[in-house]
């Protein structure tokens, strides 16, 4: 057995999880910063540009969360379970299957955004300048959707072996390069023309292209535990299904999460572009929690998956609750800080008084519930490792129902933005509570 796999099965849980989570948290923070850097620069273009980006952001995050969290988790889980069961040849073959799926899904996202983007952004409240900015940014970003999928699939393959350090290095270096690249393309300099919001989209695609090349080169090197092989380049339904049965269930959960944000954006859109910009900027902090919790969730997928593959159910559950405690503590600290000092976050992106007012109201109401969001999210990742995603999916659908219905009723009954945001907070509580209750009652190991 590979030493890294043995560590996942036999090493002390808490210290192993923390040691693996360290570089993974760094990488996820760096990846989140890539988006925040871009938002900060685009915020200098005005409220319409910021509102346009807020309209597109839920769809971009849907792609990110599906490629890195849902299908990426399916890839990591399948590889970890194969290695835990000592099916080394299957683990090698899973690399080819993962890359093929990433190309297919990337093309689907490109076509969907090109054909349906205008309709979606209009129904989310986009109009005039904000709608034009949204379409420009959307068309640029989604033209390279395959690059985003390839990058996250390659990183998931490597994480499935327990190697969290390499993706951390690649993404961290990529973020450092994005710091000068993004403003250069947005505002121009010397012979390079100013591209405006389109420059932010192009910079992001160059970031993913470079990262894909670096991760691919590693997989082809002799240092990689797994690598693509020509003899594995054939269709094996069982291996596709091993990824898809976890990845597609996770995709449903991811869609529900992002639809909840998109619905809230549409409800807030009744109050104008400044309200959309305020909510969109504030809710970015919620999206920032996703990669932070994934810092613990990525190692947890590998640890739980390896333990389940080896028949170690008790170890899988102990690792799950230890990871949950870490994720809840981190999420709640961030939520409480945001609720106490909302302007410190919001003013990084814009100074419009109406935007600051709406964003502050959201963070004061929803921020204290971020710990329950972190609980639901970390248990989702652990369920990916176990290959049992029914209850996380149901929890996210329940979250969507509470957020959408509650927000609609709040507007109908005249409760305004406070009612809409209150429904979002209740939805997070439902999401975390359902996941925790189900796993505590042993749903993973029932037929």
UniProtKB/TrEMBL annotation:
Keyword Cell membrane annotated: yes
Compartment(s) where it occurs, according to its Swiss-Prot or TrEMBL record: Cell inner membrane
Family matches, as PANTHER family: MULTIDRUG RESISTANCE PROTEIN YPNP-RELATED (PTHR43549)
Domain of life: Bacteria
Name assigned to this protein: MATE family efflux transporter
Annotated membrane topology: Multi-pass membrane protein
Chain segments annotated as transmembrane: 21-43, 49-73, 94-120, 140-158, 170-190, 202-222, 243-268, 288-309, 321-345, 365-382, 389-411, 417-440
InterPro entries, per the entry: MATE_fam, MdtK-like, Membrane_Transporter-Flippase
Principal subcellular localisation of the protein: membrane
Naturally occurring in which organism (per UniProt): Curvibacter cyanobacteriorum
Pfam families per the UniProt record, alphabetical: MatE (PF01554)
Keywords for this protein: Cell membrane, Membrane, Transmembrane, Transmembrane helix, Transport
Biological classification of the source: Bacteria, Pseudomonadati, Pseudomonadota, Betaproteobacteria, Burkholderiales
